[in-house]
């Protein structure tokens, strides 16, 4: 909550401002950093001089997942600095923290690229030619053009999408308010398609508890070995780094599996430089060792996994007791209409409950006497065996898995993943000698075989039984939802049209069809995101999506690559200029974010923009509640009330932990959210993440496999032209493209670079510090070469998400493939081959 601090005795306001530089309109932030000129701007609205400094409770709401609490220091209604603020409710000690990004927020709020007022494009798209217009002019034009588009092409022709630029619950990416408005006008929701392959691979085995879940990081110290697969936590999730240090100090061994010698790998007890895109082969080979040496946890496999389930050879389905003449059970339960923090585009009335009817048809297993019985009735189910059902051979799911992993003996897998066979055996023994945690990052997720890498890893947890208790687990662990919030606020109606993946959008825009039927999309509204910078294959996005749009509207607080191509730009408020609550965080806390200052210039919060849209589109009462009333609707649910969590309590306490007494452990006591309640490493009914009618190999999706990615491997179709794999890293000085134009951080990180192994550089005549052109058939970019022996030969690594205007030519996302796995439907950021040459400026 806000506090007030008086100036030091004997120091007047004028002398204080003069000393700090505020009297001249600047703030000196350390001796060598740039000064904050924007505080001298002729800005009047909401400013009232006082003799006090106010400190507000804030949250850093970028999707690094840290969601760190901040003190927001305000003088004369200007944010002059930020500092760390303690969590009040975290059960495992203080986790007050703040990184350089969190310390540099004033440079974002008052940056030279701040969008100050609504603008209309007057030149060609992308030319940067604008005219200032009023809010009323902007809203009239938007509403009129949207109405005409709907009349000519249908309601679905208006689409909306977002990125991850604001983790708020009312004016951010978890807000149900966008669904309230856009569902009302029957618009099409375009869902971003990134970082979903891990989720798909894990959740199809254990059920959906959330997108990216793992034991609370404070539990790392309770594991004997912490495996980190493809995550440079020191930079990408630096808020979790201290948990790893603390774990190592208490004796936990750190194993890092990564193609690159990252900062985290350099701190590891063991670094395993796996070949890119081959994590599934490594995990499958570790399972081979476990099975071959009879090290698997058989009691766990029998009781808590699908291992003993009989699988029919004709259909690939589980043999059910109904096949054997036993009638299924029908069970009815009541379920309240509440959801987790990730809002759906479907909805119902607030407080509505529904009756859920579930038919239970138990899978059949072979009991110890060789007879087929229901899985829950078996005294001691067999892991191995066959059964004849009406002439149809049935085998246990475990036998099918074992048959699968027998192709991955350490010697054979070593040829695939370039990890020595004896190292694979060593890793398998470490993974058996638990408790162990496997923390998956976004590395293996970023290829077209990423679903199977995660599927293999979670299957290894089924073999070891190391999941669901302290020190043991497998998952991603970036964001954890605070369950029980209500996404069905007043005015919510069900969406008329399906949610569509962003990866489908280029084809829809080219053809005007979705699933073979006419489905023109003519206008796109983008908020909290920068897809032209962050989505794969920029040139395709500009050509096929932007090039086929009649009308593009973007709301943002700063000029981005996407703002540059808009027809109408709306100035959005910064996080500190609006009240909100964060319900998705690394700490599984609800965290209150106070409004510290009035929105600068003519900017407005997302929810206020939606209110204006609703009024102009003929629905003036659609978003009629106050922000506080909507917060209460979202937070005040029976399940949260049992924990003492209410909107008023969150405001009073600032943060409230969902699990107040101990670290959160997902799947605790082997409670899985699959139909059987068990880990189903054999996927009976494989499905796709998004359905556009795409075909996929059902047989391949039953069990985890290794197969080559689309492009990033030796011998791929592009190998004759391009022989370097292009990898990216999440840098510590940005979160995706956020903080890109932060003057403070640009002194530390001034321009795009690409890291190369010196061997690869010498072969191409590239010197350290020289400018090089990175290119393939999709595009190119120019960056400064940084030679680094920690980069695997044959690979290059770039810090992601620089803006187009920060390159000498091109941009990183031009190079990235838009080919996707039909099951995961996930952007494959690493599945790219490129070449690099000395840049010829001419």
Annotated CATH topology of one domain: Dimethylsulfoxide Reductase, domain 2
Average of per-residue pLDDT values: 89
Strand order of the largest sheet: 6-5-27-26-25-7-8-22
Class based on secondary structure composition and strand pairing: alpha/beta
The biggest sheet amounts to: 8 strands, mixed
Computed over alpha carbons, the radius of gyration is: 27 Å
Record field, number of beta strands: 37
Q: How would you sum up the global shape?
A: globular
Taken as a percent bin, the fraction of beta residues is 15-25%
Known CATH architecture of one domain: 3-Layer(aba) Sandwich
- CATH class label of one domain: Alpha Beta
Please estimate the helix content: 10-25%
CATH superfamily of one domain: Dimethylsulfoxide Reductase, domain 2
Number of helices: 26
How many angstroms does the end-to-end distance come to?
A: 57 Å
Poorly predicted regions are 4-49, 336-352
GO molecular function, one term: molybdopterin cofactor binding
Organism: Gordonibacter massiliensis
InterPro entries: Asp_de-COase-like_dom_sf (IPR009010), MoPterin_dinucl-bd_dom (IPR006657), Mopterin_OxRdtase (IPR006656), Mopterin_OxRdtase_4Fe-4S_dom (IPR006963), Prok_Mopterin_Oxidored (IPR050612), TAT_signal (IPR006311), TAT_signal_bac_arc (IPR019546)
Keywords: Iron, Iron-sulfur, Metal-binding, Oxidoreductase, Signal
């Amino acid at each position: 909550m806000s506090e007030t601090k008086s100036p030091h005795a004997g120091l007047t306001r004028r002398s204080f401002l003069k000393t700090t530089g505020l009297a001249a309109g600047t703030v000196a932030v350390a001796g060598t950093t740039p000064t904050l000129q924007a505080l001298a701007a002729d800005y009047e609205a909401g400013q009232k001089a006082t003799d006090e400094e106010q400190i507000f409770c804030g949250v850093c709401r970028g999707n690094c997942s840290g969601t760190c609490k901040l003190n927001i220091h305000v003088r004369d209604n200007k944010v002059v600095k930020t500092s760390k603020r303690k969590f009040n409710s975290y059960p495992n000690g203080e986790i007050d923290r703040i990184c350089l990004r969190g310390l540099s927020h004033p440079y974002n709020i008052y940056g030279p690229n701040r969008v100050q007022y609504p603008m209309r494009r007057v030149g060609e798209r992308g030319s940067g030619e604008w005219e200032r217009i009023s809010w009323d002019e902007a809203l009239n034009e938007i509403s009129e053009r949207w109405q005409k588009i709907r009349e000519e092409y249908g309601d679905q022709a208006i689409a909306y999408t977002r990125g991850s630029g604001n983790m708020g619950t009312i004016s951010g990416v978890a807000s149900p308010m966008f669904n309230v408005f856009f569902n009302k006008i029957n618009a099409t929701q375009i869902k971003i398609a990134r970082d979903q392959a891990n989720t798909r691979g894990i959740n199809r085995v254990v059920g959906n508890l959330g997108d990216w879940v793992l034991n609370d990081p404070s539990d790392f110290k309770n594991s004997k070995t912490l495996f980190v697969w493809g995550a440079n936590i020191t930079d990408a999730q630096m808020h979790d780094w201290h948990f790893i240090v603390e774990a190592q100090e208490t004796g936990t061994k750190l194993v890092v599996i990564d193609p690159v010698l990252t900062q985290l790998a350099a701190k590891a007890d063991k670094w395993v430089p796996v070949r890119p895109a081959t994590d599934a082969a490594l995990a499958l080979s570790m399972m081979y060792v476990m099975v071959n040496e009879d090290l698997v946890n058989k009691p766990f496999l029998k009781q808590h996994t699908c291992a003993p389930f009989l699988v029919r050879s004709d259909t690939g389905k589980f043999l059910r007791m109904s096949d054997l003449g036993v009638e299924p059970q029908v069970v009815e339960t009541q379920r309240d209409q509440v959801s987790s923090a990730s809002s759906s585009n479907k909805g119902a009335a607030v407080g509505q409950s529904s009756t859920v009817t579930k038919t239970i048809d138990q899978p059949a297993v072979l009991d110890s006497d060789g007879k087929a019985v229901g899985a829950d009735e078996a005294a001691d189910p067999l892991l191995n065996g066959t059964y004849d059902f009406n002439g149809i051979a049935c085998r246990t799911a475990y036998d099918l898995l074992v048959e699968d992993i027998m192709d991955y003996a350490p010697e054979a897998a070593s040829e695939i993943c370039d990890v020595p066979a004896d190292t694979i055996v060593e890793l398998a023994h470490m993974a058996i000698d638990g408790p162990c945690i496997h923390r998956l990052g976004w590395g293996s997720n970023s290829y077209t075989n990423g679903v199977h890498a995660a599927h293999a890893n979670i299957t290894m947890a089924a073999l070891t039984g190391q999941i669901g208790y302290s020190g043991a687990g497998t998952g991603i662990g970036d964001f954890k939802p605070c369950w029980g919030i209500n996404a069905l606020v007043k005015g919510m109606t069900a969406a008329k049209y399906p949610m569509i993946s962003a990866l489908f959008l280029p084809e829809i825009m080219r053809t005007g069809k979705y699933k073979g039927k006419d489905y023109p999309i003519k206008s796109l509204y983008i908020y909290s995101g920068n897809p032209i910078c962050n989505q794969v294959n920029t040139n395709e996005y500009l050509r096929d999506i932007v090039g086929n749009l009649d009308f593009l509207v973007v709301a943002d607080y700063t000029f981005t690559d996407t703002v540059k191509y808009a027809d109408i730009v709306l100035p959005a408020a910064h996080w500190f200029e609006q009240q909100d609550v964060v319900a998705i965080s690394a700490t599984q806390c609800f965290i209150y974010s106070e409004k510290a200052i009035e929105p600068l210039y003519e900017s407005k919060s997302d929810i206020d923009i939606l209110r204006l849209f609703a009024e102009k589109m003929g629905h003036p009462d659609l978003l009629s509640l106050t922000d506080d009333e909507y917060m209460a609707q979202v937070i005040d649910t029976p399940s949260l009330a049992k924990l003492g969590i209410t909107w008023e309590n969150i405001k009073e306490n600032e943060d409230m932990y969902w699990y107040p007494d101990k670290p959160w452990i997902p799947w605790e006591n082997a409670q899985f959210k699959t139909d059987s309640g068990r880990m189903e490493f054999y996927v009976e009914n494989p499905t796709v993440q998004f359905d556009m009618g795409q075909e996929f190999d059902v047989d391949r999706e039953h069990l985890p496999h290794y197969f080559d990615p689309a492009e990033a491997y030796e011998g791929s179709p592009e190998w004759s032209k391009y022989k370097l794999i292009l990898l990216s890293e999440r840098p510590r000085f940005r979160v995706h493209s956020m903080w890109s134009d932060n003057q403070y951080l640009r002194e530390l990180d001034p321009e795009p670079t690409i890291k190369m192994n010196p061997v690869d550089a010498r072969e191409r005549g590239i010197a350290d510090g020289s400018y090089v052109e990175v290119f393939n058939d999709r595009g190119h970019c120019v960056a400064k070469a940084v030679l680094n022996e920690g980069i695997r030969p044959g690979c290059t690594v770039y810090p992601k998400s620089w803006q187009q205007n920060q390159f000498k030519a091109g941009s990183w996302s031009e190079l990235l493939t838009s080919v996707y796995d039909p099951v995961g439907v996930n952007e494959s950021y690493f599945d790219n081959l490129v070449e690099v040459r000395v840049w010829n400026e001419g």
